[in-house]
Amino acid sequence: MSKSLQAIRGMNDILPEQTPLWRYFENTVARLLDNYGYKQIRMPIVEFTELFKRSIGEVTDIVEKEMYTFEDRNGDSLTLRPEGTAACVRAVLEHGLTGAGQPQKLWYIGPMFRHERPQKGRYRQFHQIGLEVFNIEGPDIDAELIVLTWRLWGLLGIRDAVKLELNSLGTSESRGRYKVALVEYLSAHLDKLDEDSQRRLKTNPLRVLDTKNADTQAVLVDAPKMADYLDDESRAHFEGLKARLDAAGIPFVINTKLVRGLDYYSKTVFEWVTDKLGAQGTVCAGGRYDGLVEQMGGKPTTGVGFAMGIERLILLLETLEQVPEAISRQVDVYLCAFGEAAELAALALSEKVRDQLPNLRLQVNAGAGSFKSQFKKADKSGALYALILGDDELAQQVIGFKPLRGQGEQQNIAFDALAAHLATCVVQG
C-alpha cells in the first residue's frame, strides 16, 4: 500500500478549532499597529539566496544550517525566507520607500522557514509579525517599539508572564574592539569551551555569549563586558532608551550576554522572554540595524524593528488561560427550516437579516434533515439561539426563537421584527 499523505515534519496545519484564537491575536495586533501609525507591507515568501547571505551573514547558523534553499528552473538559487527584516529592506530599497530620508513605519505578517529540530514552540514553518522603522535615529523610536509591545501584552492579559531584557551592541567600530578583547580572553580558555563555541570563536565570536552550555557559561563570568567598549554615541542612545522606559513605567533588566543571532544588529537589542513555555522562552525580539540598508546597496539609513512569534504567543495565551471565551463561538444564531417552502423563505429572510445586522454570525441549515437532526447540528454549532421555520410558522409569518445556552422559553417573532429582536439578544463584534 502507498504511504498516506501527511504534512512535512515541523510544518503544521492550523485547524478550524484553532483559527479563531489566531484571528483574535492577529486582529488585536493589527488594530494596535493601526493606532500607532504603522502601515502593512506584504513581501514574497521566496527571495534570492544572496539576499540572506548578504544581510544575515554567511557564518550564522541560519545561513549555514537552517535555510530552505533550492535552484529554480532558471538556475537561480532561491530561499524560503527565514526571517522578515531582510525581505522588508529589499522591498523598501526596490520601491524607493525611504528616498530623501523619508521615515517609514511598516509591519508585516506571514510564515517563515528554518530547518530546525521541531519541538514545542519551535517549528520549521512558523509565523511572525514584524515591525520595521526606517530613517528615525533617536532612542524615542526604540522606546515606542517596546512601549507598544507592553501595551499589547496588557491587551492580551500576559504582562505578568513576560520580562524585558536589554543590551547595547554599540557601533560596528566599538563592537570590533570588543570582539578582539573577547576572542583574546576566550582563546586563553579554549579547552573549557564546548565544541560549538570553539567553532563560533573563529566565525562569529559574539554568539559564544549566547551559549547554553554550563561550562562555557562559567568561563564567560569573567569575560570582558560589551558595556566597557561602547562608544559615547551608543552609550548616550542606550541611556536615552532606558530613561524613556523608566518614564513609561516599563520594567526591564540589562542582559550583557544578549547579542541576537543575526549579524546586522547594532546599538539597541532587546528580547521579551517568558518562563512559562520551557526552553522556548523568547516571544518577541529585535533591535537596531543602522548599517543594514547601506550593506544591502542603499544609502545610509537607520533602521530598527522586531519580530514576534505567533505560535509561541498563542501557546502562552493557552497556557495562561487567557483565551477569551467568546472567540470560541463562531455562530450566534442557527436557522432550522423544514420543508421546501420554509427553506426558500429561510434563505430570503436570512439575507434580509444580514442586511440589517452585518456583524451577526447567522448560519442557515443546509442539507435538510429531520427536526431532531437539525437541532443537533444547531447545538453542535455553538450558537446561542436557534430559529425554527416550518409550514405553521410560515403561514403565520413568524419564526420560532429558542435559546440554546441558557434559560428561556421558545417564542414566536414576526418576520419584520426579527432583526430588531436579534440585535437586543446577541452582542455583535
UniProtKB/TrEMBL annotation:
The top EC class, named as a word, is: ligase
Q: Reaction catalysed?
A: tRNA(His) + L-histidine + ATP = L-histidyl-tRNA(His) + AMP + diphosphate + H(+)
Q: Which InterPro entries match?
A: aa-tRNA-synth_II, aa-tRNA-synth_II/BPL/LPL, Anticodon-bd, Anticodon-bd_dom_sf, His-tRNA-ligase, HisRS-like_core, HisRS/HisZ, HisRS_anticodon
Q: Which GO terms describe its molecular function?
A: ATP binding; histidine-tRNA ligase activity
Q: Which residues form the Aminoacyl-transfer RNA synthetases class-II family profile domain?
A: 1-358
Q: Which domain of life is it from?
A: Bacteria
Note the Pfam families from the entry: HGTP_anticodon (PF03129), tRNA-synt_His (PF13393)
Q: Name the Enzyme Commission number(s) assigned to this protein.
A: 6.1.1.21
**Gene Ontology cellular component?**
cytoplasm
Output the PANTHER family linked to this UniProt entry: HISTIDINE--TRNA LIGASE, MITOCHONDRIAL-RELATED (PTHR43707:SF1), HISTIDYL-TRNA SYNTHETASE (PTHR43707)
What is the protein named?
Histidine--tRNA ligase
Q: What is the lineage of its organism?
A: Bacteria, Pseudomonadati, Pseudomonadota, Gammaproteobacteria, Pseudomonadales
